[in-house]
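User: Structure tokens for this complex, please. No commentary.
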Amino acid sequence: MNMKELDFINIIKKQINNKLIGDDCAYLKDLGIVITQDNFVEDVHFKMKWATPYQIGYKAAVVNISDILASGGKPKYLSVGISLPQGIDTNFIRELYKGILAGSYGAEITGGDITGSDKVFISITAIGTTLDRKISSRANAKPGYAVIISGEVGSSADGLNALINGHVKPDSIRAHLEPSLDVEFSNEISGKINTDYAMMDTSDGLADALYKIAEQSNVTIEIDYDKIPHKKDITDKKTILFGAEDYRLVAAVPETFLKNIRHYTKIGKVVARKYNIKFTANGVNYSNYDEIESYNHFGDKL
Amino acid sequence: MNMKELDFINIIKKQINNKLIGDDCAYLKDLGIVITQDNFVEDVHFKMKWATPYQIGYKAAVVNISDILASGGKPKYLSVGISLPQGIDTNFIRELYKGILAGSYGAEITGGDITGSDKVFISITAIGTTLDRKISSRANAKPGYAVIISGEVGSSADGLNALINGHVKPDSIRAHLEPSLDVEFSNEISGKINTDYAMMDTSDGLADALYKIAEQSNVTIEIDYDKIPHKKDITDKKTILFGAEDYRLVAAVPETFLKNIRHYTKIGKVVARKYNIKFTANGVNYSNYDEIESYNHFGDKL
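Assistant:
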């Protein structure tokens, strides 16, 4: 038997045979909500020695809120399931919840569960409303659409690298431990757009998001590498393209819609009805996706 | 610092200051849904040597569906977050999901998350609709109401005891590992009642449910111990009163409403507007709740 996560996901998909799975959130049209859930596990997603309890709580919430924003929903409720080792003290809980509240971006906590465990385990489910919003789908990119991004990528991976290697890079480390979200970008698109559009967050890296949109929309996306926003001191192409957990939003929307968005960077366009990704910058040859190795810890999203 | 779970829960309640917390589910009126989440952790809530992967998945789902039924909602969606050690094989996943599907009682899986971990960790969030239903509250019991239960208690605790001590008690063990739910009882009450009512499941034992309803409703509940349904071979009063995880439903409803319910046992009544519980059977003196020790692993519901 093979223990890889893709095997697991394929088994699960086969068993539940569910069309709701595929986007950052499941869109439950009958209830007018989008829903997402992320597990946040000690020594898999975070290390106690690197992050404060506040930062752990903040990020556990933010990864879910980001999925709601990527779907175009408005974050509304969070359910928080936490399991904690006996050695945890009350101050940890207090700070953890401060972080969760800060990372909830106005969503209200509905309750959840608290139990024991060997390691810190946090599972948060976020619900967003779809009222007065148009919900995105990864399968909605169309030839002629512009491909835009809400902010800089690469900082989080640079920060993780700094933590692993003991480098002093406070801005990047903060980007990794306390990523901010681009609420306005999501609101402006989902609140104003009338056509179908595709949006994802860069939780698994920019290249991964572009690949998934291109594949599920069955289109060719052409990216001008030199347009991708990043900090000046981050120059490694792999970090910029494949670095995960910046939680920026990438969207494919009609060119004519761009006037409705205040802050964005156009990084490319959808050019054809055939699955492919082309990077057009000089000297960069990532035109074949086989070359791409994205950051992928054990465990991908369903 | 004190590490007790009640401290944790009090800190969390203080920080989130949220009126949604207190019932088996949070009732989100604006969305027309009830929501609940339970963590199901290896060596805290189940042991791999006692339960099959199917049974683990079944119970992880059922504990949440039971909360939906206790609220009076109709189970509609499940979000499944699972974290698994590297040693888990694909057959485990297949059987686990079969169990989750069986325990979902018709609710649809929306997706969720799958990640790595040291031990098996399952966090399921269930959503129920409130359409054409009246939702229960623990604070709704009123003097004059009948106190009824949907089925037998004590079997699950008896089964857990058999597993711990290596006794052969297949029926009780099955009641512990694969508890069935009383869907019809919930449907008949929430679908037909016009008045406020209180309902809870016996996830933490019958006495615990009665205590919580009495406390939050600020009423006296009088129970006729001899009426409490249980298997003939289970005679230990502590097992019957305090044994957990049978997932029966206990409700306080107007006497005149009882004609609408096909299968129930009346075990007592609400008698006064003052918080107390009285057990009236001969020779049983549990009139003071201080004597009651309910089953309580580290970790209570929020």
